[in-house]
């Protein structure tokens, strides 16, 4: 699932492919933005903010979110796409490259000076240059909900999704249902920062140090399988008001208290 590390890498690839050239193609295939055309405008670059992607073109910013299945692909003009055309939501091209966004969510174009309207509510981002650990700890510590829900709330810290929440809580030995005020927020965030920064430059995310499929996580996606530490069967549950896959939790009932 795309989390802050995936979005960071996506922004870097978009930046490398497009920045510095003029847009020769700008095609948004969503009703609310279909008439916007930034062809001919200079592409300044792309950055991530938590799980949000900002591509700056002319005086405007194209915002997108990868949600569950979204991705951006880079092609040479004329190269055959590796995905069906009906899934394409955005194409931004230059003379040298086409960036094609598939299954994207929250596509919007705003004046770049108004980016804060889209992402200003986000908490500190451990992959951003202005990362502020004290502010992240302050926001997380002030949350009285369960730690799993608080860690996923992008207003506290931006970039962690369900997989990070499950794995970080396992590594710290904390049940996902524990009230956040009982948790050492500074230690949890410190581990989260180290982990997401280590994964930032990997092609495949890992929490165990092994990146082979099926071996990269301790608990995430492993319901019913034995804990890698103690052998107890990993449990799966749902938490929070939002009935989406984002709220599914995985934990070891022996290792996490
Ligand atoms: Zn265990």
Quick description:
By secondary structure, this protein is an alpha+beta fold.
What distinguishing features does this structure have?
257 residues, alpha+beta, N-terminal domain of MutM-like DNA repair proteins, Helicase, Ruva Protein, domain 3, 2 domains, 4-stranded antiparallel beta sheet, 6 helices, 10 strands, 21% strand, binds zinc ion, DNA-binding, Znf_DNA_glyclase/AP_lyase, nuclease, zinc ion binding
SSE ordering: HEEEEEEEEHHHHHEE
- Under the CATH scheme, the architecture of the largest domain is Orthogonal Bundle
For the record, the CATH class of the largest domain is Mainly Alpha
What share of the residues does DSSP label as strand, in percent?
A: 15-25%
Counting DSSP H or I runs of 4 or more residues, the number of helices is 6
Radius of gyration: 19 Å
Overall shape: it is globular
Give a quick account of the main beta sheet: strands, pairing sense, barrel closure: 4 strands, antiparallel
Number of strands: 10
| Structural domain count | 2
Task: Report on this structure.
With 257 residues, the protein is of the alpha+beta class. It has two domains: 4-120, Alpha-Beta Barrel (N-terminal domain of MutM-like DNA repair proteins), CATH 3.20.190; 133-251, Helicase, Ruva Protein, domain 3, CATH 1.10.8.50. It is built from six helices and ten strands; from the N terminus they run H-E-E-E-E-E-E-E-E-H-H-H-H-H-E-E. It has helices spanning 4-18, 116-119, 133-141, 147-152, 162-171, 185-200, and strands at residues 25-28, 43-49, 52-57, 60-65, 71-75, 88-93, 98-102, 105-111, 235-238, 248-251. Strand 2 (43-49) and strand 3 form a beta hairpin. Helix 1 (4-18) runs parallel beside helix 6 (185-200) and helix 3 (133-141) crosses helix 6. Zinc ion (ZN) is lined by residues 227, 229-230, 232, 252, 254-255. Belongs to the FPG family. InterPro entries: FPG_cat, FPG_N, H2TH_FPG, Nei2_N, Ribosomal_uS13-like_H2TH, Znf_DNA_glyclase/AP_lyase. This is DNA-(apurinic or apyrimidinic site) lyase. It is an enzyme of class 4 (lyase).
């Amino acid at each position: 699932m795309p989390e802050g590390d995936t979005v960071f890498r996506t922004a870097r690839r978009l930046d490398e492919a497009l920045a510095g050239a003029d847009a020769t193609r700008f095609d948004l295939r969503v009703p609310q933005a279909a008439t916007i055309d930034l062809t001919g405008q200079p592409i300044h670059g792309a950055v991530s903010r938590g799980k949000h992607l900002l591509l700056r073109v002319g005086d405007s910013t194209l915002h997108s979110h990868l949600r569950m299945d979204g991705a951006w692909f880079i092609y040479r003009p004329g190269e055959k796409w590796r995905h069906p055309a009906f899934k394409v939501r955005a194409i931004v091209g230059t003379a040298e490259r086409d960036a094609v966004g598939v299954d994207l969510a929250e596509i919007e174009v705003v004046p770049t000076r108004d980016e804060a309207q889209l992402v200003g509510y986000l908490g500190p981002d451990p992959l951003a240059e202005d990362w502020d650990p004290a502010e992240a700890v302050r926001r997380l510590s002030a949350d009285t909900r369960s730690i799993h829900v608080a860690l996923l709330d992008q207003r506290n810290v931006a970039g962690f999704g369900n997989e990070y929440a499950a794995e970080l809580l396992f590594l710290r030995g904390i049940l996902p249902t524990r009230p956040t005020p009982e948790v050492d927020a500074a230690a949890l965030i410190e581990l989260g920062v180290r982990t997401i920064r280590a994964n930032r430059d990997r092609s495949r995310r890992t929490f165990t140090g092994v990146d082979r499929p099926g071996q990269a996580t301790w608990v995430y996606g492993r319901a019913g399988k034995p804990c890698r530490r103690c052998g107890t069967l990993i449990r799966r549950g749902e938490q929070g008001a939002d009935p989406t896959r984002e709220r599914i939790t995985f934990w070891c009932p022996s290792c996490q208290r």
